[in-house]
Amino acid sequence: MAKKSSIARDRKREKMVAKYAKKRAELKAKGDYAALQELPLNSSPSRLKNRCFVSGRSRGYMRDFGMNRIEFRKLANEGKIPGVKKASW
């Protein structure tokens, strides 16, 4: 499991991105890049990191399911993810 501080930091960034999204879009439309520079750095969507919602792990993230490969495999083998089954041929 990822450190609680890493998860909390990412949640804080998500809130900040949502808070400044409208203002950021307006400034980009106007072309006012000086005012864009004044916004907090963590309000930029490119600073967000995809994290597993189960464990908080950032590596091996599967976008379709919102979790990392390890948690995905564990839950898929238990049959807890609908529509997913182990391949056999």
Strand proportion? under 5%
Radius of gyration: 18 Å
Tell me which CATH architecture of the largest domain applies here.
Orthogonal Bundle
Number of helices: 3
First-to-last CA distance: 33 Å
Strand-and-helix sequence, N→C? HHEEH
Low-confidence blocks of residues: none
Mean pLDDT: 94
Helix content: 40-55%
What's the total number of strands?
2
Determine and state the CATH class of the largest domain: Mainly Alpha
Note the overall shape.
Answer: elongated
Structural class comes to mainly alpha
- Reported by name, the CATH topology of the largest domain is Helix Hairpins
Q: Please outline the major beta sheet.
A: 2 strands, antiparallel
Which sequence of strands runs across the widest sheet?
1-2
Describe this structure in words.
The radius of gyration is 18 Å and the shape is elongated. It has two domains: 1-49, Helix Hairpins, CATH 1.10.287; 51-82, no CATH class. It has helices spanning 4-30, 33-38, 69-77, and strands at residues 61-62, 67-68. It is mostly helical and 89 residues long. Strands 1-2 form a two-stranded antiparallel ribbon. 47% of the residues lie in helices and 4% in strands.
Which structural traits does this protein have?
89 residues; Helix Hairpins; mainly alpha; 2 domains
